[in-house]
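Researcher: Please predict.
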Amino acid sequence: MYLEQIQKANDIKKLKDEELDELALEIRKFLIDKISRTGGHLASNLGVVELTMAMHLNFDLPEDKIIWDVGHQSYTHKILTGRKDGFDDLRKYGGMSGFPKRKESDCDAFDTGHSSTSISAGLGYVCARDILGEDYHVISVIGDGSLTGGMAYEALNNAATLKTNFIIVLNDNKMSISQNVGGMSQYLDGLRTAKAYTDLKNAVETVVGSIPVGGEKLVKHMRKTKSSIKQLFVPGMFFEDMGIKYLGPVDGHNLKALCRTFKEAKRVKGPVLLHVLTRKGKGYLPAEQDPSKFHGTGPFDIVTGEPLTKSAKDSYTDVFSKVMLDLGKKDERLVAITAAMEDGTGLAAFHKHFPDRFFDVGIAEGHGVTFAAGLAAAGLHPVFAVYSSFLQRGFDQIIHDVCLQKLPVVFAIDRAGLVGSDGETHQGDFDLSYLSMVPNMTVMSPKNKWELADMLRFAVKMGAPAALRYPRGTAYDGFKEYRQPIVYGKSEAIFEEDSIAILSVGHMFETAVRVREQLKDTGYNCTLINARFVKPIDEEMLLALAGEHELLVTIEENVKSGGYGERVLDFVSRKGLKMKVLMIALPDDYIEHGSVDVLRREVLMDDESIAKRIMTEYMGRRG
């Protein structure tokens, strides 16, 4: 096996040309085998095997810097830098990350996880290199989906002024997670199909280059001149008009063509964009046929491509999807927005039934927020479905464009709390903090699937900015009988006793129920409150609890700083209430990858740890 000869960075260069195609096959087989067991990002990684190999053949790592946009497609890069053995624990707690990590290898130049960032980071490296008088290449890899994000254009605009080499690789597979949308996608479609231009360009350069005297010099002149063949046959030439040399399109699975084009790119004195056409899921038929399904997958059967574990119960996303469809039938002004996550956020059904009221803005959350504000200002009822981690990218727009104007935009925040295997960049553990600080914003979180449905209907009717946050995974279906009507700013008493009161936020309710049972078994009296509203907090309820309770416990899957617990503690302190407040929350830190159950144990938010902390706190107060 040639794969066994790859033990460290640059080992690929020891292989002969005729051995490289076999290495590509071995890498694909290895990825399919490992990811079928651990789960991970399969389709994107299968699509960049040859591209990654070409970069490692043409550059010296770690001296040269490869910066991956998002980074979930860096598995082959990890293999070629000696991390093959780490795939047995891929995305497990304490194991290898599914994304580039500087602490993991010197060959990972920049930590990534969100999109549209690689050109900005690469430009920073280039400018630092030039200031320090150093000599190395910088290669920023960005997908065509990431070019729907405005940050990429801000970086391109700055990069266009460079006088030194900066290589930008556009990995064009027509996909982000869902199918790409918008003007740039249509523009790239034109470049992909510009075969007449490509064939003519190659033919002319071949003929001119064969002229015995001065042929090669003439070809070089043709490449440099602004009124080149390219300008004649591909109108617009967006990148070249910006001042960025364009090379391609190149077959991203033709290793020789890629290496030849990288050699040319290295000679450019300025920014150069190499347009590479790849196929997401290449080499594994189920992933080629359904790349969205295999973008991020759990363990699966290699023969069928079907997941090894299926839940018969609805996820929170499923519940949201069904209620949105029902609301869409009743409210002609209801519109839905996603940022390149139609399937992930559960809006595919809404799109199918109401195509004119569905909007995919691409990977552009900031734009999506302000777009929703415009829809609301014009009289529509927008619901922006977005992952918690990605909504952070629209924070400024939430403040200035939605809440300042009190516009009725509903944020349906999926993947809230601990998400798990994707790690620090994808955990949804900041939303309660950054949303609660914004004036005019209402923040809610449901205890179970039934309450999610009720809260979504309530939020749409509110006529004001509202955020509804819920986690990834199977929706809790317990306590259906406790389905009291939603009243603005009011919590829900589930069990009323004395001594200890637990205030649970959202999906931590299921944990709180089990913790209360442990406390009851140990002989403690315990009230259980479903908070429902994180902002505003139910001050009337807190005042009522003060008379009969010595310890108030808040439980939330959000960082402690700025979260629900701190808001409760602030109120108790300001009012001088004679209750101790124990805040159970995530640490004010970045939480790495691993299963949610393992992560909860590590941060002492599992059932046993919480119960023990409550009993210790209560006994300490009484002692």
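Model: The first strand starts at residue 65 and ends at 68.
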